User: Fold this.
Amino acid sequence: MPTDFAALPTTRRRFLKGTGAALAASTTGGLCLPAVAQPQEIAIISNLSNVEQRQILQRLASEYEAKSGAKIVINNMDHEAHKTAIRSYLVVGAPDICFWFSGNRMKAFVTKGLFDDISDLFAKENYKSVLGATTSAVTVDGKQYGLPMGGLLWGLFYRKDVFAEHNWTPPKTWTDFLALGEAAKSANMIPISVGTKELWPAGGWFDHMNLRINGLDKHIALMDGKVQYTDPMLTPVFDKWNDLIKAGFFSPNHSSFGWEQAGAALAQKKAAMMDLGGFVRSAFPEADLPQLAYAPFPEIVPGVARYEDFSVNSIHVPANAKNKQGARDFLAYFYRPENLGAFLAAEGAIPPRNDCPPSKDPLVNAAVEELKKVVGTSQYYDRDTDPDMAQEGMTGLQEFMVKPDRRDQILERLEKTRKRIFG
Amino acid sequence: MSRFWRRNRHWLTPVLFLLPGLILFGSVILAASVETIWISLHAWDGIGQKTWVGLANYLELADDPQFYVSLKNNVIWLLIFMLAPPVGLALALIVNQQIRGMRILKSLFFIPLVLATVTVGVVFGWVYDPNFGLLQLFFGVFGSTAPALLSDENFVTFAVAAAGLWPQIAFCMVLFLAGLNNLNDDLIAAGRVDGARGWRMLRHVVLPQLSQVGFIAIAVTVIGALRSFDMVAVMTNGGPYGSSTVLAYQMYEESIFSYRFGYGAAIATVLFVIMIAFIAWYLHGLVKAERSNA
Assistant:
């Protein structure tokens, strides 16, 4: 492009000079900009996908602002995207409060020194007395690194009207369970509705069978990478699971869709039961909710105590937060029984505090009652084991559910992964 | 200031014009690529310390069955996407006719270009749904059941790539339409005088003039097939059990879900090497075309 710059009008030249000056200013002067937040500002990053919960959090924040004069900024993130984002924001640009998951997922950040020790808040507010055993979900080496939020008790869900119509009862034993499955098939229903597109439901089903067959300690040993995936203790688990697959107990083509569609099949009476947490309620229309009921996963090996998956979300103060005191003050307000109770009621989760007002949701109350009979809890496959192992493991378990004949190959692959991760 | 400016403007002016682009390209593309290659030589979980592992990630990759599944799927994507330029050309020739109502038809063919790829993925996901999808309705007319394409390890990649093909065809069509509008009328008139019409006209007069556009369409399609990611993420999450992953998706899955940024970076580097071969070919073609034009 042969252009004579000398012949250009002065405006262009001025523009260029200006651009040069601006560039110079932005590269040098930009560094001097102070990155100081208001001392009385409390920044919260939430991963809440439930609209009602977001509104309640906003309401509590405004109430607290009016009371204390602090300013609260809430940033809502997409639930799945947040799982990735938290890894960078905890290091660079941490908020004062963030939502996360207790147990191993919390521990991963605690060992890297990214969550603040809030044992002082626990002591001051005397949380241990109202939390009881749930305290252990947020404890590492005797120190507390977060506040437990709502819990999800996993189990089988069914419709009361469907069971009444066919004269079925929730299965207590494995024989009951197999019989119920056959009955459902002859009634032209899918015995177990499942959608494994997002993989984790396959991991959950494995958890529940393994807990019923091998018990909690061996299950946790497997999650911690101390037991091989080719160990004979898993043979009965996969044998029994294989029987179910071969008998057509699970939704056909379950790898094409997620839990929402599987939940809809349960709501539409196309399936008899579904293995999920209390959030299955969101797949039900309001009018059908009273029909939804919970039954524990049936006993498989008699004599194995009742262990369940009970996943507990949590809320934390990042170690790099700017306003740690403000964060603690707001958390103390947020964690008051009436506030926490209102917040958790919106998602149908079980409150961790024993002094929250009783829920109006019969499902939550049933779960609270059931929880009293549970001897020990794990959290969930992808919360209990290493994330890398979880990804490989859930993919393998999904493959097993579609191609049970590849079992040996799959387990060898998982064992290879286990060895790489846990050594 | 003004004396300095007058003395140095012959080089300052182009530098200032180029600077914003160079800074962006340098930091977003070049530096990131170099850093990716650097990370691929480490074991890193994305937060903690990087541990130097040399070529261990690449050795593991060579022994990873999932990597070959992804590679094979990328080849399938590439082959299916190669349909886009010829079909796009055919459509462009059809909608370029001066017929009443052709404008509406043309805009209908434009539609997939307006939609975000994620939307296309979601819509096709519904079409393929074995319970209520359009495909099932179609098969139902004949009293049979549609195959659950997204659940079948043998069909899934073809089904996803076919969904990706739809907007790609529209894109190629637009390229060729633009090319058809720039045809040299003199050449066509001359061809007509010489008695060329129909197929001979197309083959010997029109197509040679479209060769440049065709080259761009092919190159863009190749790159589009190699970087395919969004469709896979939206429609299958790489499933069932990893049978529809492509390299870009496997990279994402390893880094984001398995927290193996070093391994993910190694996959990215392999993809980069494959792409750079195509890009070199593309640039070579472009430079050659510019020379022959000059």
Summary: The CA atoms of residues 5 and 13 of chain B lie 9 Å apart. Strands of chain B lie at 42-43, 51-52.
